[in-house]
Amino acid sequence: MHIGRQPIFDASGDIAGYELLFRGNTQAVEADRRDAYATSQVIVNAFTEFGLDEVVGDRMCFINMTREFLTGELILPFGPENVVLEILETIDVDDAVVAGVTNLVAAGYRIALDDFVWQSGHERLLPLASYVKLDLPHCDLDRLADQLAFFRGFPHVEIVAEGLETLDDLALCDRHGIELRQGYVLSRPQVMTAACIPPFKLRRLELLGALSEVDADLDRVVEIISSDPALTMRVLRASNSAAVGSIQRVSSIRQAVVLLGLGHIRRWAMLMVVDDVAEATEAQLTNALTRARLCHNLAARFDADPDAAFVAGLITAVAELLGITASSMVNHLPLTADLVAALTRGIGPLGRMLRVVDAYEHGDMARMGFARGGNDLTGAVMDALRWSTQTVAAASRQQELVVS
């Protein structure tokens, strides 16, 4: 997963915020898409793959919006904290957009008018805006002072000079007292990359279908999420993101779903469908689910909670697929103390369980024998293999039906 991040500086040179940008690969200098797909991918990646705190910290986060998000056709799955919605200059500001932006501002969101162009209709949004972004090198310098004076007639509006490429551009900002600055002369966009498991698209569609029912079945929602490692990781990360507004510790997927609420899950599922990414292989999914299910089956032997054991097994499997350590994932997930201890130090009932599972997978019988009930894991292993194989095979059969 990739995301672009370009700093926005204040007049003293400190970073005031970041604009998040769509990037299809690590070499991309500029975005080649600015549509609903691009916006959806930026949102999903920033909030669930990277974690917004890692991308922008406590700074402001500017995200380009398309018409679908402004009018409510696509729902924003995050709250207004530290987020600024940029309205692109290409958007036709009609009554529907004005009404949608009015509702967003009333809900607490801040608005930035991107690359402001006079007499484009965007003047209608000035009373609602918190920021106006000007492409300073392309402004009419003879009229710049008057234009800035006009903007400052709206006391809640701050000016962001963008497209700055030279020291003369910075001097112009200083001369006119422009509050915020952005451009290559200060910093080029940085492309951030996160390793992740490609989401299982069919599971997203299943999840969306389950959530679209009038009385959504919580057990069914948890079952679908639990059967897809990518969905599980995103739900766990989302439950710890700024989208929730408060950090709580969870030890199971059910707790994370309840914490987020079915409304939030529904919104993320919609964005994941828009964010169309390649699937993981069936073998990868089967192996990851087998380990998670095996941990679930062995939990009672270690006096551990089965749901927490499933999460512990799945996190270690995901980390292995990503080529990282499970402990490195802990900071990104809202895990309970026993899960943290197990994943970072290998201690506690869950830690002992993970050591046994790891020993079994590596054929190291000398490290076995920690569990109550002995070393015979045949029944637990066979059940885990059946469950994971059937789960993935069922999804594949449904996928074939959809394709045909």
From TrEMBL:
Gene3D superfamilies: EAL domain, Hypothetical protein af1432. Residues 1-203 form the EAL domain. InterPro entries: dGMP_Pdiesterase_EAL/HD-GYP (IPR014408), EAL_dom (IPR001633), EAL_sf (IPR035919), HDOD (IPR013976), RNase_Y/CdgJ (IPR052340). Residues 197-391 form the HDOD domain. PANTHER family: CYCLIC DI-GMP PHOSPHODIESTERASE CDGJ, PTHR33525. This is EAL and modified HD-GYP domain-containing signal transduction protein. It comes from Pseudosporangium ferrugineum.
